[in-house]
């Protein structure tokens, strides 16, 4: 039987610099409440640390607040930028958030997007994908460990020594984890190898739709190589950018407004 489509919204969010952050964040929160009331299935939130346009620095905190105002909608991170955090701290935060939301959370993981974020932390952007994989492997080891099992991991940027989660998640066996993917096949490969769901964000950049053609095949091939069961395609999220207006001309006018400021922001951040 074909599964029905599920609908969600990715709230990065984008706000013009100079706007009151308090007002902007309340606007985003009200959007989540409205989405919950309208019956949307999911809402996802980004993590950014530079530039001022995308002003949520800790999506887990925003999700905790949003969960108090909503009842049904699931709430996810798009993404937690794993190279910026120690994996044990990430895992502990998600266990707590899983309990506070009664299992309504989805843990989207990625390497980080803005080069300016990595620059401020002294992280080489070339190393971020590798660091993200090391962190996600450690986090999954913590989630999948037996009750008395201890986890040891050592890399050039973090250490786990006889580590374990001091409380278990609300969700059995742990909250859904989704690996972010852009144009390259590295995201789908990692999702297949580690057994996570997939969050495809490539449609936000040129060539993104073409990249989707073989994406799911890559996930399944990698899962088969390591002996995993065939992944569940219904857990694949695909982002698409859209704007709804009364006419095509009105839609173009709406989207053109502020576009140069938007492009200038991403250019200054080193993203384009």
Topology of helices and strands:
Elements: E1 8-11, H1 21-38, E2 42-45, H2 59-69, E3 74-77, E4 80-81, H3 87-100, E5 105-110, H4 115-120, H5 128-144, E6 151-154, E7 159-163, E8 176-181, H6 186-194, E9 197-200, H7 208-211, H8 215-225, E10 236-238, H9 248-256, H10 259-268
Parallel strand pairs: 1-2, 2-3, 3-5, 4-5, 5-8, 8-9, 9-10
Antiparallel strand pairs: 6-7
Structure notes:
By secondary structure, the chain is an alpha/beta fold. It has 2 domains: 8-181, Luciferase-like domain (TIM Barrel); 246-272, no CATH class. The chain contains 10 helices and 10 strands. Strands 1, 2, 3, 4, 5, 8, 9 and 10 form an 8-stranded parallel sheet that branches. Helix 3 links the parallel strand 4 (80-81) and strand 5 (105-110). Helix 2 packs parallel to helix 3 (87-100), helix 3 (87-100) packs across helix 5 and helix 6 packs parallel to helix 8. The radius of gyration is 19 Å and the shape is globular. The chain starts with 7 loop residues before the first strand and ends with a helix. The model has no long low-confidence stretch (mean pLDDT 94).
Describe the structure in brief.
The chain has 272 residues and is an alpha/beta fold.
Helicity level, as a percent range?
40-55%
What's the level 1 CATH class of the largest domain? Alpha Beta
How many β-strands, per DSSP? 10
Average pLDDT: 94
Please tag this protein with its features.
272 residues; alpha/beta; TIM Barrel; eight-stranded parallel β-sheet; two-stranded antiparallel ribbon; 40% helix; 15% strand
């Amino acid at each position: 039987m074909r599964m029905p489509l599920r609908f969600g919204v990715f709230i990065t969010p984008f706000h013009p610099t100079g706007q009151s952050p308090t007002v902007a964040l309340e606007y985003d929160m009200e959007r989540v409440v409205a989405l919950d009331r309208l019956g949307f299935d999911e809402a996802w939130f980004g993590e950014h640390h530079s530039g001022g346009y995308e002003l949520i620095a800790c999506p887990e905190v925003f999700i905790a607040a949003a969960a108090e105002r909503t009842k049904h909608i699931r709430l996810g991170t798009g993404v937690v930028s794993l190279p910026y955090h120690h994996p044990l701290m990430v895992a502990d935060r998600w266990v707590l958030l899983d309990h506070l939301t009664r299992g309504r959370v989805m843990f989207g993981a990625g390497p980080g997007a803005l080069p300016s974020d990595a620059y401020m932390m002294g992280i080489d952007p070339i190393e971020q994908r590798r660091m993200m994989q090391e962190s996600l492997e450690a986090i999954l080891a913590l989630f999948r460990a037996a009750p008395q099992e201890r986890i040891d991991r050592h890399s050039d940027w973090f250490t786990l020594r006889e580590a374990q989660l001091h409380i278990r998640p609300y969700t059995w066996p742990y909250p859904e984890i989704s690996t972010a993917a852009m144009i390259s096949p590295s995201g789908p490969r990692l999702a297949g190898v580690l057994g996570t769901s997939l969050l495809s964000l490539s449609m936000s950049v040129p060539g993104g739709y073409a990249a989707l053609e073989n994406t799911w095949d890559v996930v399944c091939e990698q899962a088969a190589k390591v002996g995993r069961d065939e992944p569940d395609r219904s857990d694949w999220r695909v982002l698409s950018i859209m704007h709804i207006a009364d006419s095509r001309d009105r839609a173009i006018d709406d989207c053109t407004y502020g576009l140069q400021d938007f492009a200038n922001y991403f250019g200054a951040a080193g993203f384009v």
